[in-house]
Amino acid sequence: MLRRLMAGNGRHAVRCVLPDAQMTNLRLHTTITTGRPTNTNTKPRRRHMQSPSTSTEEENLLRESSKLAQQLKALEGLTRQVQDSIKEKENEMTRKDVTRETSVGIAGGNDKADPVVDEKDIDDVFKALGIFGSTAAGEDGSSRPALPTEETDLVHNNQSEAEPESLEKTGSREEDNTVIDLNDEKELLSLFPVPKAYVPLPESVTSVLTPEVLSNITQEQTATWEPVIDALLSSSICDPLSGSELASQADFTGYDFHQLVATIPRKQKEPLVEKLHELALMSGVLWGNVHVMNDLLALCNLLPNEKGKLLVEVLLQDIDLSSNDTSDGGSKVVANATTKAILLNHYARLSDVGKVREYIAELDKLPDSKNPMKTSPVIYTSIMQMYMRLDDYDLAKETFDTMKFLSMATSPSPRTYTSMILLDTLHNNIEHGIAVYNEMLDKEVKLEPDALLALAKGCGARRGMVDQGWGFIIDYYENGYAVDSQVMEIMMYLAYVDGDLPFVRGIWMNICETNTKLQGRIQLPHAKCTKWLFNTYYRVGDIVELARNGTSHVPVGLRDSRVRAIRMKVLELTNFNFHEQAPPLLPMVDFDGSDPKLMLGEARALWKYLVQRSQEVGEGVGGKAYLGEAVIEAYLYVVGRYAAMETFEREFDRLTVFDGDGEESVTIEEPREGDVDVDADADADAAAVNDDTAARAVAVPHSVLPAGRVLRTDRLYNLCMHTARHQACLSFAQRIWTERGRYRRSTAFQALSVPDQDAADFKFARLMLSVLTHTGDAGDAYKLVLSSQNRFVWTRYHLKSLLMLCERLGYTTFARELDRVVKRGHKWVRRQQRRAA
C-alpha cells in the first residue's frame, strides 16, 4: 500500500522520495515497531561503559526514527482517507447502476435491452443501500420500495460525512437498522435541508420562525419580508403566551430589532414601516431604548410626507427632547444627537424651515466632535435639498459652499455635487455648474451620469454652448455609462438646438422603434421629444433666413468628428418601416428641410397620426394627455411659419378652446365639416374663417375636452402674436388683442398673483408693439407705449425698433416723447435699486 501511495494512486495520493539511508532506517524502525512497543518520544537511557561516539550515533538514529515514525503515521492516515474515498466512489457507482436498472425494470423494459428486474432483487438492493421503507402494497399484496432520488443520496452522503466514527463502530451500512417511512409526510420532509435566510438573523428571531416562513427569504432576489414580520407579530416575541419553550428561547433585544431593520432592503421597508412600529411596541424593546426610537424615526422618512409627519408626531409624545443627558425619572425616551439629526432631516424633507433652524441651534450647542452636522455631510445635504424644493437657489448654493469650507468631514459627496449641478441647470446658471464639474475633476470625485447629462442639457439651453454640451455627451460615452432613452433624449435636444433636422428625425425614429420592440406595440417617444421635433422644423426656417442674410450655420454633428461618428451611426440604424403602423415620416435619411412644402407636409401628416395614436393610447406619462399644450403649441408654430395665415387661423380655432368666462363649461368653435381639411386652398380657408355661420357653439365641461384640444392661455396668445408678426397680419393681431382682454377676466388668469399678471401683460404688450413696428404702424405703437408708461418700465432695449422706425419716417416728436419714457423708466429702476440696497 505504501508503494501505491508513493506511485500516486488514489485521489489524495502523495508522492514521497526518501534517501537510501533513510530507507534503511525506515526498515529498521518498522522492525522495531512490529515487535515490542518502543516509546520514541522519551530519551533512551545511556548504557554503562558506552563510548561517546556510539552514544551520539544512537541518538541520531533514534531522532531520525522518531521523525520517520511521525511521517509513517501521517501516511497511514492518508491511506485510510484514500480507501474511504475509493469505497465511497464504488458505492456511488453501485447506486447509479441500481437506479438505472430498477427504474428500467419497474417501467417495464423489453427482453433485449431492458430486462425486467425481480421485486426480490430490488428489495435486496435497497437493503444493501440502507433504505428499508416501503410504499403501500400493490394489487398483488407485495410492497414496492421507493426509488432512490437525488435527495436521498444527498442525505446519505451527509450522514456518511457527519458520522464517520459511528459507522466505524457499528460496521457497514448493511448493519444499519434505521427505518424511514416514506408515506409519512412529516418524516419525508425531514429528508430535505431546513431553509435558511440569505442574511444572518438574530437568534431570538430565527428561534420563533418556522421553515415555511424562512422559505420566503432564502434568496435575495426573490425575498419577501412581509410574511416574516407578520410571523414575528404573532409569535411569542409579541405574545408570550403563544410560546411553548419560553425557558430556552433567546430574549428579543433592541439590538436584535436594529439588526432586523438593517437587514430588510430599503425598497421593502416602506410598506412595513407601520408593522415594524407595532413590533417594537408589542415586544417592549421601544421603551427606554433611544436606538430603537431612532430606527423608528428614520423609517418615517420613507413614508409620504403627510403620513410620515403624523407618525413622527405620535412618536414625539414619548421622546424627551431636553438638552440634558439624563432622564427626569419619567417613562420617556431621552433623545440624543442622532435623534435630533434624524428629526432635522425629517423637517427638512417637509420644508419646515422653522423647525430645521430650531434643531440646528440645538446641535450647535454640542461639541464639534459630537455634532453630526460637523462630522458628516448627510444633514447639510438634506438642508440643501430642502432649499431646492423651496426653489431658493441662493440659500441652497450657500449651504453647498458651507459644506465645502466647513471641514473635510462635511465635504460634499458625489450625490451632493450632482444635486448642485442639477440646481444650476434649472436656474440657468450653467457657468456655476461647469465650475462645480471642474472642481469634481480636480478633487477626483466620482462623476455621476446625471451630472454629465444635466450639464449637457444646460449647455444646450444657452446660446453658443452647444459644442460644450456635446463634449459632456462624449465624456458620458468615455466613462462607459449605459446609453438609454434618457441619453438619446438629451442628444435629441442638442441636435434640435443646433438645427440638425436629419439627426433629430433619426433619434426620434430610433426611440420609437426601440419602445415599440420593448412594448410589443407602437409606443411613441415622450411628448417632449415630439415637441422638439416640431421645434426643429421651425428652427430650420431660422437657419434658412440666416443663410439668406449671408450667415452660414454648420451643425456640430458635421463639424466635430466624434459627434459625426455618433450621428452617422444613428442615421444608419434609422428604419422608417420598422412596423406596419410606423409614424409617417418621409423615408429620407438626409432630409434637411430645404423644401418648406415637404417639411410642412411631413409635419401635418405626423400631427394627424399623433391625434389618431393619442386616442388609442389615452393618457401619457404621469396621467397627462400626450397632445398637451406644449405639443400643440409647437405644431402651431410650424403651421404659422410655413402655411398661409388663413390656414393658421383655422388650425388655431380647431385645436384651442376659448375660456373667457371661467365657468364650468366653455364654448368650442368648430368649423363646418367641409372646412376640417387643412390642405384646402387659401380661398376656402378665408371663407371658412370669415363666415359667421361656419361655427357653432357647443358647451362641454372642461374635463371632457376632445383629444388634441386645449384651453387658450397666455402661451398660445403669445404664439399668435409671433405668427402675426411673421405673417405681417395686423387684423389677426387686433383680434387676439381683443380676445386676450376678455381672457384676463377668466378665473385662471385672476388666480395668478399681481406680479405674475403684470409680467404676463408686459410680455404680451411687447409682442403687440413688435407687430405694430414690423407692419410700420408707428402711430398705434406710439399710443401703446404712452398709454402703458405708468404701468410698465419701457427701456431703450424694448423701444429700439420703434425709435428706428420713427427716425426713418421722420416722426421727431414721437422720438422725443419716447426718449422721455425711457428716462422715466431709468429713474424708476434706480429708485427700486436704492430701496433694495
Automatic annotation (TrEMBL):
Stored Gene3D superfamilies: Tetratricopeptide repeat domain
InterPro entries: TPR-like_helical_dom_sf
Basic and acidic residues: bias regions: 166-176
Stretch list, region Disordered: 32-61, 135-177
Compositionally biased residues, Low complexity: 32-42
Domain of life assignment: Eukaryota
Name of this chain's protein: Pentacotripeptide-repeat region of PRORP domain-containing protein
Source organism of this protein record: Pichia membranifaciens NRRL Y-2026
Origin organism lineage: Eukaryota, Fungi, Dikarya, Ascomycota, Saccharomycotina
